[in-house]
């Protein structure tokens, strides 16, 4: 890593993490860094810079990612220069679809470049430590079964990381990177229907087995445009951390610094309540933040990610069997106000009924007196609307369509990159995604297919 290109915030972050590691009785062999959500390259970019700095200055030689351990052997082969097809590595070496994130591509190319100048016995390695398992619909149908599977996954993660640290021995140190829910020392929990399940995290297991040799840092954020997360509410712990960050850059808060933040607030800090399940962001809990990890890395704001273009959406949704995509204009007979918007309808081949009621639309502008709160007149802004129905609606937003009026007051109707209630048709099961992110293409296509299938009924 070139010190001349490091930004002041980068150097501050690297110094703070090194200080945290050196404050232990013995320098830990395993550092775990968490992310609050998947799919925001802001966090991946910070991870990359931090690991490469620790590799240069503190003897770290391995980064272990939240991907299947066996498939990741292909990833390690690439960074060591044994295979050359990066596209194949990203597609086949990364589980969970994580190969599509730019930050992971960037990590591999940088590590490979660095390794090209290192001797064979000092090569950096990139591995995985996740278990080869995904929770199925059957698992989620039973709280008891889901809890058992999560415990099994935690144990396998901890075993894999423990074995990795032992295999490295005295030749280097390991940095693990995963969701906060896996690396934190406290237990994790998840709402599953009417029940809340809990399990011991991999981080908790590792802290117990490798006392003094494991340090965990969870990451929090003020906002994440890539996930549609806006600035945190006042009196939330994220808001308090935002105000402490210097020059709007990421900052590490150890227990002493966290204690000052919690103690200096004029009001009792609360957990933020402006998040929906679709944002997939875990907020900090001020009641447990001091025991959940060794430190918090707070990122005041993320960056806007790549957006799925209207053209790509027309191709993707219009490519669903028996679906027609119509771009409204003078030649289509649509009213002038609708020109430039796109309507998706079911048009089955043969003698089946031809629907004129859309199951999805792309809207490019405000509709005065009808739909203005989303502020679609902003430059480079449009909305994808989907009629997903009550079940998907509640799964994405955390409340049924019938309760929209009770919850909509806490949501920003102009928020980008996350499902929102449609401003007019929410009670019928319509959602809206403003500037849908490319990182969520798979999920968005699945929602569009569900809406198309529902439109056939």
UniProtKB/TrEMBL annotation:
InterPro entries listed in its UniProt record: DUF6194, Emycin_Estase, Hydrolase/PRTase-associated
Domain DUF6194: 312-455
Pfam families xref list: DUF6194, Erythro_esteras
Biological process terms in GO annotation: response to antibiotic
Coiled coil, from the record: none
Record-given protein name: DUF6194 domain-containing protein
Organism expressing this protein natively: Dietzia timorensis
Biological classification of the source: Bacteria, Bacillati, Actinomycetota, Actinomycetes, Mycobacteriales
């Amino acid at each position: 890593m070139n010190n001349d290109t490091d930004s002041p915030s980068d150097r501050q972050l690297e110094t703070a993490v090194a200080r945290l590691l050196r404050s232990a009785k013995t320098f830990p062999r395993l550092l775990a860094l968490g992310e609050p959500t998947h799919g925001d390259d802001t966090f991946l970019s910070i991870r990359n810079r931090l690991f490469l700095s620790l590799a240069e200055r503190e003897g770290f030689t391995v980064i272990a990612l939240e991907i299947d351990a066996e498939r990741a052997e292909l990833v390690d082969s690439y960074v060591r220069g044994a295979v050359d097809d990066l596209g194949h590595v990203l597609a086949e070496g990364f589980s969970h679809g994580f190969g599509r994130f730019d930050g992971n591509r960037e990590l591999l190319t940088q590590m490979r470049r660095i390794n090209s100048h290192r001797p064979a016995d000092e090569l950096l390695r990139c591995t995985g430590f996740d278990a080869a398992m995904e929770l199925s619909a059957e698992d989620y149908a039973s709280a008891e079964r889901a809890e058992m599977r999560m415990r099994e996954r935690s144990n396998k993660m901890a075993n894999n990381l423990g074995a990795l640290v032992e295999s490295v021995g005295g030749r280097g140190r390991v940095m693990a990177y995963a969701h906060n829910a896996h690396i934190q020392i406290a237990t994790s929990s998840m709402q599953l229907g009417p029940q809340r399940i809990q399990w011991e995290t991999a981080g908790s297991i590792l802290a117990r087995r490798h006392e003094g040799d494991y340090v965990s840092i969870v990451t929090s954020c003020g906002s994440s445009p890539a996930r549609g997360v806006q600035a945190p509410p006042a009196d939330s712990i994220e808001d308090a951390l935002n105000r402490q960050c210097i020059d709007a850059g990421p900052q590490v808060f150890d227990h002493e610094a966290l204690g000052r933040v919690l103690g200096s607030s004029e009001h009792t800090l609360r957990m933020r309540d402006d998040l929906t399940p679709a944002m997939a962001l875990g907020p900090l809990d001020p009641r447990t933040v001091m025991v959940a990890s060794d430190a918090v890395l707070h990122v005041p704001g993320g960056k806007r990610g790549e957006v799925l273009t209207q053209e790509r959406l027309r191709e993707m949704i219009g490519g669903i069997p028996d679906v027609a995509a119509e771009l409204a204009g003078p030649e289509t007979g649509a009213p002038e106000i609708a020109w430039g918007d796109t309507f998706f309808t079911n048009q089955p081949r043969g003698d089946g009924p031809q629907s004129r009621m859309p199951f999805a639309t792309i809207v490019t502008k405000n509709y005065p007196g009808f739909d203005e709160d989303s502020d679609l007149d902003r430059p480079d802004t449009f909305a994808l609307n989907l009629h997903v129905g009550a079940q998907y609606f509640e799964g994405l937003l955390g409340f049924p369509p019938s309760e929209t009026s009770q919850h909509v007051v806490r949501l920003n109707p102009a928020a980008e990159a996350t499902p929102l209630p449609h401003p007019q048709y929410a009670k019928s099961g319509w959602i809206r995604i403003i500037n849908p992110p490319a990182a969520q293409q798979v999920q968005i296509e699945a929602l569009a297919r569900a809406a198309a299938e529902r439109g056939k009924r």
